[in-house]
Amino acid sequence: xxxxxxxxxxxxxxxxxxxxxxxxxxxxxxxxxxxxxxxxxxxxxxxxxxxxxxxxxxxxxxxxxxxxxxxxxxxxxxxxxxxxxxxxxxxxxxxxxxxxxxxxxxxxxxxxxxxxxxxxxxxxxxxxxxxxxxxxxxxxxxxxxxxxxxxxxxxxxxxxxxxxxxxxxxxxxxxxxxxxxxxxxxxxxxxxxxxxxxxxxxxxxxxxxxxxxxxxxxxxxxxxxxxxxxxxxxxxxxxxxxxxxxxxxxxx
Amino acid sequence: xxxxxxxxxxxxxxxxxxxxxxxxxxxxxxxxxxxxxxxxxxxxxxxxxxxxxxxxxxxxxxxxxxxxxxxxxxxxxxxxxxxxxxxxxxxxxxxxxxxxxxxxxxxxxxxxxxxxxxxxxxxxxxxxxxxxxxxxxxxxxxxxxxxxxxxxxxxxxxxxxxxxxxxxxxxxxxxxxxxxxxxxxxxxxxxxxxxxxxxxxxxxxxxxxxxxxxxxxxxxxxxxxxxxxxxxxxxxxxxxxxxxxxxxxxxxxxxxxx
Lengths: 252, 258
What we know:
The structure holds two protein chains of two kinds. By secondary structure, chain A is α+β, with helices and mostly antiparallel strands. Chain A contains eight helices and four strands. Chain B is globular.
């Protein structure tokens, strides 16, 4: 098997990350290539993407291979190590939990299938199923925000991470917009495009205005003093809640 | 002074005291988890498993929301300050919103009202939320990946033992319930293992007992090799459970309702 097939997907724009991913894959193949069937990179609209590593069928105990993968020094992105028969799990709606308030699903399957970059071995992209019914995705995303982003925010207030909270809440709103776009079959949207694609597809002026207000707040975050940044963190959470209210109709 | 279970209950009392400052905004506080069940392990059990249900109007009135947020934020500061073990914020919730299916059963049936109205009979979850909950086991398995290097690392440090121990506690608490949800069985933590054994005959759940035994030790992380050994046992259990679940559920409906 050729280790480096032609790349026809979407790489992260960050050159350093590209290099980290390719050198890690080389180390991985050199160390345990005999146990690996496939390595594929997937991009993501909000994160730096991740890797799907598929072991050969004869690998019986996956945790040992996962330990090997860590010994090869993976880049700071998500990786999945799962058998071909388990790949359907990548099409789940996903769940995330405090203290990591961002889950790459349900966008992962769309990106992997359509924009994934095969780095080694068998091409699994055709085996990935795009989620057939996306009608509950936005509802689940909103519920996860209510469950975890709210109490993550309470913890950030305690830690006085006001600027970080303002930026993260803006990112979360953009991510919610991206998930709402899935219902319009718009999965291939760049991070910069998300707000205007949302505006064009939904015509929800109040929600779009909230997104713009949050973006403006996030742009100013680094310049704020302690008192202003605390007020802005409260303001950002209020705007976040208003975005959830103004888009509640997108839940089935 | 050595912490006691009483410290946990005092923290719950403190939350009620703080919520009383915005009494007109709070419909109800519902407590669940070990504080309700009474099986607190001092220093290991976490706080604060509670939902603070706020009135709909709080989310529609900026001044009211900001005031409530200030009070809730102060309430969590106090919890963090006084917690005798791990802590996390309570959930604040719109009284009219459905709750996540992962919490629904415990909130409705294995809980108590700390303040306000008993709204548990109108707590609901939606079908999309139930479908997501049915996949939680598989996500949890994936989140355990960073622990795998510890299976073979030469010497585990105290910090690493602590990290493993925290994960093990989480597995004992959440994994059996998640596996039950994958099988469309909706139960509380205390019933989950029995239900799982019924649903998957021959499943060896001894690994969960080993976590419990570790938790009962006066210094659970004092022996790194024992911690590692329990981790190994648990990893084997999780893989076996995963494979059995895949055969039971995925073979029949490999898209889990999607």
